Amino acid sequence: MKGKVVLLGTSSAMPTPERNNSGIFLQYKGKGFLFDCGEGINRQIMKAGLNIYSLDYIFISHLHTDHTLGLTGVIETLDMHDKSRIKIFSPSGIGDFLKCFFDRFYTPEIKVDTKELKLEDRPFTVLDHLEFNIFAVRLNHLVECIGFSFVEKPKRRFIKEKIEELKLKTEDFKILREKGYIKKDGKIITEEEITEEVKGFKFTYIPDTYKTDNIIKLAKDSDILVIECTYLDEEEKAKKYGHLTLEYILEIAPELNCRKIVLTHFSKRYKNPEKFGERIKKADAGNIILGEDFMSFYF
Ligand SMILES: [Zn+2]
Ligand SMILES: [Zn+2]
Description:
Elements (H helix, E strand, L loop, with lengths): L2 E7 L13 E6 L2 E5 L5 H7 L7 E5 L11 H10 L4 E6 L3 H11 L6 E6 L7 E5 L3 E7 L7 E7 L2 E4 L1 H7 L3 H10 L1 E4 L2 E4 H4 E4 L3 E5 L7 H6 L4 E5 L6 H7 L4 H11 L3 E5 L9 H9 L5 E3 L5 E3 L1
The chain binds zinc ion (2 copies).
One zinc ion binds next to loops.
Protein name: Ribonuclease Z
Pfam family, one: Anti-Pycsar_Apyc1
Family: Belongs to the RNase Z family.
């Protein structure tokens, strides 16, 4: 197991006794990534048994309070543990939001790097790491809002049949590693010929948005897509408040081609979103599930 994705909050504007405001924790090889930080996320991280001090990056989709109110608490917790720095990516405004708090109420020693992103309509790179990329795209909400993808870089794997066919031995692999090719019976065999590319894990988070093609551009072929689904089929409300309906998600699901689609950010008007489950069943969309707080996905 390389990592896991944990839902920390699945309610929209207001928390409910069952559902916290938005937050998703991604753990990958000891590194922690937090996507959105609504009220109560600090405690949700602890309740989920996650290591808050492993957090290196926080990605804020937009500045509505149901996605940001927990931020100062998380920073204070990190500060108390003498963590030296945290990097926050967000649309514009996060700097002012934090400065107001830091200037007047709490001055942390931790270095808080904020990067305000310039939004684009095609997926752009936010972070290019040796082992993964973070991509982002503009969404269609009432304020500037961003969707994020974590994509593990592809790796090459030996093709078992080819290795057996060529009867490769340990010393052959050593030469292959050093030179990138080996000589077998007078023939040159390159690494490319006997390896294949294996796609890395892809996680996408689509927070608050109304319909936009940018969702598909970013989320296509994800292993796990966590997507806002504030309404069941109230199209007028969805358009007015900049949200999605389950009907729209069902419509684009074939093109999204995701292994698993996890719905989140349910409106509090649905005390129990079982109607969503019934509609999904009717549509026979087996890869779509209703998110719940603390639901975890391992990869
Ligand atoms: Zn929201
Ligand atoms: Zn919002």
